Amino acid sequence: MSSLMSLAWRNLWRHKRRTWLTVGAMIFSNVLLVFMISLQFGSYDMMIENSLKAFSGHVQVSAKGYSDEPKMRLVIEDIESRAEQIRGAFPELVVAVRGETFVMASSDERSFGIQIAGVDVAHESNVSSIPGLITQGYYLRPTEQQEVVVGKVLARNLKVGVGDEITLLGSGFDGSFAAAVVIVRGIFESNITELDRSLAQISLASFQELFNMGRKGHVIIANAPNINDSGDYQHEIQKLMLVGNKVDHGLEVQNWKELNPGLMQAIKSDMASAWFMYIVLIVLVSFSVLNTQLMSVLERTREFGIMTAIGLRPSSLGKLVLLETAAMASIGLVIGTGLGFMLSLYLNEVGLSIPGMADMAAQYNLLDKMYPAVDFISISIGPLTVFFACLIAAIYPIIKLQGLEPVPAMRAA
Amino acid sequence: MNQNSQHDAKRELHKKTLVILAWRNLWRNHRRTAIMLAAISVGVWAMIFMSALMRGMVDDMLGRGIDQLPGHVQIHNRLYLDDPSVVNSMPEPQGQLLKSLDQEGISKWFSRVKVPAVISSEQDSRGVILVGINPSAERETILSGAKISQGRFLESGDDRGVILGEKLVNRLETRLGKRIVITSQDPDNNLVEMGARVVGIYKAELPSQEEMFLYMGKATLQELLAIQGRVSEVAVFGDDYRDVTDLSAQVAAAIDATDAFTKQKIVHKTWFEVNRYLGSIVNVMDGFVLVWIIVIFIALSFGLANTLVMAVFERIREIGLMLALGMRPSYVTWQILIESILLLIFGLAIGNLFALLSVYAVADGIDLSAVAKGFEMAGMGTTLYPLLLAKDMLSANVVVIVLGIATSLLPAWRAAHYDPIQALSRAT
Questions:
Q1: Are residues B192 and B243 in the same domain?
Q2: Across the interface, which of B31, B183, B280 has its CB nearest the CB of A294?
Q3: If we measure between CA atoms, which residue out of B391, B377, B385 comes closest to residue B285?
Q4: Considering the domain boundaries, does residue B100 fall inside one?
Q5: Hey, of A291, A292, A400, which one would you mutate to test binding to chain B, going by the most B CBs within 10 A of its CB?
Q6: Nearest by CB to A106, which of B191, B303, B373?
Q7: Min CA distance, A20 vs chain B (Å)?
Q8: The complex's ipTM?
């Protein structure tokens, strides 16, 4: 085996230029694949994180049907003790509650229909990025009522600043007329157009009072320490919620994938079109390898004839060609992955901004700077696929070797 | 004169011989040539087919986006885009502006009142965008992407009914024939309210649209908002959204021709200025297609260079002999180059053919309903129609042939500069 190996290695360098050209194709595609795939994964992570942080969280509990049709009357009774129940059972989770509805918000000059969320001020900053995105003024205070924070575009549209009054008009839980005057305490900027334009937050207590909700609320949000565990927690919380359920309409526990079907499908479709491109690239590299190996086999017909004549089996010749291919592919793998890894690592530090992409990025809740995800899978999946595709490409030349007859082979020109 | 024509004839013969030589050389190693041809064909196919799919996607997004904006060029109050409030309205086109809009080059135009509002049923309320339209002018535009699933379309500008999207109807738990309450503001920030009957329900391709837009008669809405004779925007359509330079200039001239007061108050914007996301897509896609073509080419170029290097290498003795017999080095270079060009041309022909066939095969659209919600995020429908642009096909072919020749130059040039004696004495 080891003599076969050194034979393969030496054979590889009989045609330096050819070997390097073939390896060059591998390096090129490996660097590209590492870069593209890590960038792709990085942007998915960012898309998911930005979307989840801003609104949905990892796991949500709500009244059955609320996530499809968020209606005022689909509530969770005594929502805060429910949240306490979850906190008690799973201290590692961060849990917050919200009430949500639509109101007409009016300033002195303007009126807009907006979504208003009543938030659990003490816990909201654990599950949502909004409290941290205040650019003017401050976030809500747990003790103070009648305060509101609004999105940046909404503030601009309403022509209000910190300290100004906004009138909220809507209908309460029981269909009653709900109206309140609140003071703008802060303005947030999430860069998610939808939120900046049409979201305002008040404290849950104010919300419950304003809309005659008593102790009710609409959603409980729970974030797991690791997003990948959200499925497990979903089931656990589901069990927990069933135990003490005495309300006639049930509760529903959903994870972020169910809550954001658009997000998952956008990722899926992007994945599909990206893989089409990668596969084309990989096929082209394989053709390059196929060509090289076929040539190197054909030009050595005489040599192989002699080798079989002195006792080498055709299967050993096959092994030799496979070893040559593997050696070549390994060089491409190591150099390509190395360069790609360094590139991704560098961009992971400094970020990559593509001119003209900012508007497009905003559509998908991305920042204008993207950071490739540097982890084992994102770095190695492309190059490994190339590696195996190259080995597969060597099959045809190897098959051609199996029928080699020593005497005619030695006579070949 | 005679000598010249004889010279020409000789050159003609040389050229022919070179082409024949190159052609035969190409098929001496038919397996290698076939593999390289396959690689070029796959590459070219992927370049063109992928570009067509991408362009189809963008075209769909743009078509939808522009119909929703709406218009290729919009005219509105100078402040409207920043502050889309009822306060920032403009007078309905009249006099000089009206005359200019009815001229050639403008395929259609209409004006709308568009304001944010809250709509409430007995059960629930929602923030929506209220669109006051002239039903006869807009029927086509609105119904191109949506259809009335229940009830009727608006009949006239002073129709007292409203039409809602299916999704909004569900959210509000209302139904055809029921009354809803519309709340908005007038220019003095007085809240105005109006009860209206749901006369029609529409189904759009994008659910987000169903939830957002509520259509009613323009005159009715103007009356409610106390802005008689004023509108939020004028949407102007030309023949092709891709080129709106002339249209934009025409609208600019039309605005310029109005009286000094109006001129100061209103501006025009092209669709890509109104929605920068849509505007940037076209450029991003242009860039993407080019990068894609070049990346594929680079992946191909290694194989191409390799093939030529091999072809030269195994013929060193032969080339040495030719040079020794007096063939000009430039002819040797040409011979290799022609070989490469023939290979490229055949690869291109096959690749183009397959790309055309593929585009033709999916011309009826690719069903993407499995990931519909993801595409909705991008503003796309559920069927993807490929769009083959001559421009993309041309760039693919030009890139492959030009860069392909550039890649071949070095091996071809090297072949001609072997020392004949050394080349001849070299063992195969």
A1: yes
A2: B31
A3: B391
A4: yes
A5: A291
A6: B191
A7: 9
A8: 0.78
Q: Smallest CA–CA separation between B240 and chain A, in Å?
A: 23
Q: How far apart are CA B401 and CA A329, in angstroms?
A: 29
Phi and psi at residue B60, to the nearest 5°: -60, -45
- Domain shared by B174 and B134, yes or no: yes
Q: What is the pLDDT of residues B356-405, one digit of tens each?
A: 999 999 888 888 777 777 767 666 677 888 888 888 899 999 999 999 99
Boundary (domain end) residue, out of B254, B274, B294:
B274
Provide the chain A residues 222-241 that lie in CB contact (below 8 A) with chain B: none
- Whether B100 and B238 map to the same domain: the answer is yes
A284, B43: Cβ pair inside 8 Å?
yes
* Shortest Cα–Cα distance, A299 to chain B (Å): 9
Domains of chain A, by residue range, sit at 2-52+263-411, 59-223
Structural domain includes residue B405: yes
CB of A392 within 8 Å of any CB in chain B? no
Tokens 């309300």 correspond to A247
Residue B246 sits in the same domain as residue B385: no
CA-nearest residue to B309 within chain A is A18
Q: Both B255 and B326 in a single domain? A: no
Would the CB atoms of B189 and A268 count as touching at under 8 Å?
no
Is B135 among the domain residues?
Answer: yes
User: How buried is residue B334: exposed, middle or buried, by Cβ count under 10 Å (0-12/13-18/19+)?
Assistant: buried
* Least CB–CB distance from A104: residue in B50, B183, B374: B183
Q: Which residue has the tokens 């992946």?
A: B299
- Same domain for B368 and B226? no
Query: Closest to B42 (Cβ–Cβ): which among A25, A270, A280?
Result: A280
pLDDT tens per residue across span B410-428 = 888 888 888 888 878 875 5
Nearest by CB to A111, from B185, B276, B374: name it. B185
Contacts of A115 in chain B (CB under 8 A): 127
Tokens, residue B217? 């008669």
Contact B39 A169 (CB under 8 A): no
Contact across the interface for A280 and B43, Cβ inside 8 Å: yes
Buried b (16+ CB within 10 A) or exposed e, A3-17: ebeeebeebbeebee
Give the burial string for A84-98 (b: 16+ CB within 10 Å, else e): ebbeeebeebbbbbb
State the average pLDDT for chain A: 85
Which residues between 61 and 100 in chain A have a beta carbon less than 8 angstroms from any beta carbon of chain B?
69-73
Domain boundary, last residue among B223, B251, B274: B274
Q: Give rounded-to-5 percent helix, strand, coil for chain A.
A: 60, 20, 25
Confidence of residue A330 (pLDDT cuts 50, 70, 90): very high
Task: Please give the pLDDT value at position A363.
Answer: 67
* Highest mean pLDDT out of A86-95, B35-44, B369-378: B35-44
Residues 319-378, chain A: which have Cβ within 8 Å of B?
Answer: 356-360, 362-364
A284 touches chain B (CB under 8 A): yes
**Residue B345's pLDDT is what?**
94
Question: What pLDDT shows up at residue A357?
Answer: 67
In the predicted model, is pLDDT for residue A46 greater than 70? yes
Say yes or no for a CB contact (<8 Å) between A280 and B189: no
Same domain, yes or no: B219 and B118: yes
Nearest-Cα distance to chain A for B386, in Å, is 14
Alpha-carbon Rg of chain B, whole angstroms?
A: 32
Element (H or E) spanning B110, and its range? Answer: strand B108-120
Q: Are residues B143 and B164 in the same domain?
A: yes
The answer to the question of residue B169 being in a domain is yes
**How far A82 CA lies from chain B's nearest CA (Å)?**
25
Q: Do residues B293 and B47 make contact, with C-beta atoms less than 8 angstroms apart?
A: yes
- Output the furthest CA–CA distance in chain B (Å, rounded): 101
**Residues of the domain holding B81:** 71-274
Mean pLDDT, residues A23-28: 92
Q: How many domains does chain B have?
A: 2
